[in-house]
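Re: beginner question about structure tokens

> Can someone show what the tokenized structure looks like for a real chain? I only ever see the sequence side.

Sure, here's an example I had lying around. Input first:
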Amino acid sequence: MVTRSGLLARNRDFRWFWAGHTVSAVGSQVTAVALPLVASLTLDAGAAGVAAVATAGYLPNLLLPLLVGHWLERRRRRRIMVLADLVRAAALAVVPAAYLGGLLSVPLLVSVALAVGAAGVVFDIGSFAYLPSLVEPGDLAAANRAAQGSSTAAQVAGPGIAGGLAQLAGPPLAIALDAASYLASAVGVHRARRPEPAPPREEEGTGILGGLRVIAANPWLRAMTAHATVYNGAAQILTVNLVVWAVTDRQLGAGLFGLAISAAGAGAFLGTVTSLRAADRLGYGRAFAAALVLSTGTPLLIAVLPGSGMALATGLAVVQFVSGIGLGAANVLSVTLRQIVIPTGSLARSNGGYRLLIFGVLPIGAAAGGALGSTLGSRGAVAVGAAGLAVSALPMFTRRIRTLRRPEDARPATGTAPPSPRPARADARTAPGR
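And the corresponding structure tokens:
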């Protein structure tokens, strides 16, 4: 797989889209922090109120992906993405307006979080399906590298931006600035003017379960979906118990713990920008396998890290940085491979199913993390979570995947269409991947 350089410089339409995507990614991270801050600091809502707002923002990721993916499959995505950004901007603008009018309440914040979360699901699924039509096939991997790089940077910087805005302007007015970010995102996506192909005609009997059937019928998609689902569940077990083990049991200061954990973001950014070079040198499958060794194998060291204080923080930061490199690279390679393998007429529908699976396992993993922490202790639960991450990589280590030279080689043979779905009698669920 040889990738051409300079995509942002060469492609004006992608440059606008990428700018909009980047602003939207930052806005999503700011929203996730700023809305609960409004509940806590402005309304003094307590743990129950903050949890209600946070849960409302997450809930659409469980309820909507299948429906949204099925709906988007038959529509042009760019206009809908612009509309989703405008909906998020309008919903967030309600918060400062209600604050100034003395009408702000927890139920209102919950409603805003639901609306913003639902529009975010529409934007993200639409973006996955739209990008392959925006750039040439030879530029798809580079486009994903740019998009994943900005998403990773947003994950690292977003919470800090939200906290800084809340400190400077107060949480409600910080939300106003967040609303403006979505307007900027809408402008960027709108300025990507390359004509979007007409949506494909829906096959008879495809139904809402069609995306799940595409995943189930393709060995590459099955492996990536199984890996991502197990990975996310195990990551929840690890995350829930890591803070207890490091901060409470090992007496690591909260500041040092935060710095150590943030090293994962720096590593992920490095992995994102180097992923395609690794794929060119090693082959796509071997580069993917190497990324998974780092992202799923390195965390096994966490439970046996020695020392305390700065020594423990340093060890944890090194583990997080190295595993982050693998995670950033794996994300780029996974998204590109899925976009190439999935039939063009199933991109939105399949991504809806993929999102549902990986988000659907998160509450299960969190609950399991709590139960394991109570039963085995925080260190034992951390070890179990890390072991789960390692196990998640096994579906990706088959010879078929390890020997893949180019992502295009994973496409179904010419002339073979994806399996025709059985007539759908009822709706079903699908989940997303990493």
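Each token stands for a local structural state, so reading them left to right follows the chain. The longest helix spans residues 347-392.
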